[in-house]
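Hi team,

As requested, here is the filled-out complex form for the adenosine-5'-triphosphate run. I kept the field names the same as last time so the parser does not choke. Let me know if anything looks off before we queue the next batch.

— J.
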Amino acid sequence: MKSRGRSRRAANAPPEHAAATTGTGRPPALLLSGLEPFAVGGKRRCFVHPGDAGLCVKVPLDGDDRIGHAEQRQDVESYALMQKRGLAAALDRIPAIKGVVETDLGLGVVSRMCRDADGQISRNLAELIRTRSVTPGLADAIGELKAWLRDQRLLIRDTGPHNIVAMRLGADEWKLMIVEGWMHRRYHWLVRRNRFLANYWIDRQLRRFDERAETLTDAEQDPFPAKGPGKGIGG
Ligand SMILES: Nc1ncnc2c1ncn2[C@@H]1O[C@H](COP(=O)(O)OP(=O)(O)OP(=O)(O)O)[C@@H](O)[C@H]1O
Ligand SMILES: [Mg+2]
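And here is what came back:
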């Protein structure tokens, strides 16, 4: 299967030092090293859970990789924090985290897999923009995501389009999900308390998102006409 990250082609071979056991003496609960990841990001490899195709398992690119492990921890902690603070509505666009599991490629974070209505694994927005440009339905979905982020006062950590996955619900009907960095923990408390700052930062981030999306597409097509400050793709 084709790798779907922004990423290098799947680094299928496990790192040479990947442990066959987890260091605890117990065999890992999940064996992933013989499987092909469906996506490889800059920090992690993503697999379809061998026991449940509705779930995704992410492991660090390299078993010892500190950045990959830090990302894993951030995901789990941020999700737990959002649950604890009762930000239930905010979880609507974040794939549910089901837990952490020991694998033969290091500690894996298990989350819900984003799939299209036909069962295919959904593609990320960067890939879609590169291959299809921005259809009217996709532009609407981007507008909805932006409105939702403002509404939820959610400052995410990385607005890169490769961190947003587009679930295809119909011919040109999409729902966008945030698969990484859904909470900027350093500023989260401030954003919750100060509506003015929240709007300012979120708008700034969304402008950055537009800029990154624009670099993915052919400038001549110009599917992102400027609509004024803080607007851009999808409004
Ligand atoms: N729950 C999911 N459902 C479907 N696809 C997903 C899911 N999580 C991740 N992906 C796909 O895997 C890719 C890489 O995932 P992710 O962004 O979590 O990895 P990363 O290595 O941390 O990323 P980065 O390259 O941003 O550092 C995403 O761009 C997306 O295409
Ligand atoms: Mg990513």
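Two things worth flagging: Residues 4-6, 39, 41-44, 46, 56, 58, 71, 95, 111, 113-114, 121-122, 124, 162-163, 165, 179-180 surround adenosine-5'-triphosphate (ligand 1) (CB under 6 Å). The longest helix spans residues 195-214.

Thanks,
J.
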